[in-house]
Amino acid sequence: MAKKAAPASTYGKDFLLAFLFGGAICTLGQCILDFYVALGLDAKTAGAFMSITLIGLSALLTALRVYDNLAKYGGAGTLVPITGFANSVVAPAMEFKSEGFVLGIGAKMFVIAGPVLVYSTAASIVYGLILWFFHLY
């Protein structure tokens, strides 16, 4: 009965849109990187500036409610790590901005991204200790 009531699967369409949107974000990042290299920056500095630019664009588009509309169509493709992470920090902050800077924006900013930071930091420590242990012996 549940299968009859459920909408038809759109996996193919979802995969294609995620691929196209994720690819577009990565292509934009490469264009920004090439732009900074063309300005005369070395590759490492240009990479840092490209990351800053993508984070800024993602935060701006999230604040303007444009990124949410992109995510409706692009799905997982909009979760490209750097832009998706910026969106996950800005979106809760925007939602609770009416509660003030401290209890609204400051307290809610890392509601989604906080656990990611905690577990990725803990995992990096564990992996680092394992690597250190095996290089020691």
Largest sheet properties: none
Provide the gyration radius in Å: 19 Å
Helix content: over 70%
Counted by DSSP, the helix tally is 7
Overview in brief:
This protein is mostly helical and 137 residues long. It has helices at residues 2-5, 11-38, 43-63, 66-74, 81-95, 101-108, 113-136. Helix 3 (43-63) runs parallel beside helix 5 (81-95) and helix 5 packs antiparallel against helix 6.
Structural commentary:
The chain is mainly α. The chain has one domain. Helix content is 80%, strand content 0%. It has helices at residues 2-5, 11-38, 43-63, 66-74, 81-95, 101-108, 113-136. Helix 2 packs across helix 3, helix 3 (43-63) runs parallel beside helix 5 and helix 5 packs antiparallel against helix 6 (101-108). It is globular, with a radius of gyration of 19 Å. The mean pLDDT is 87.
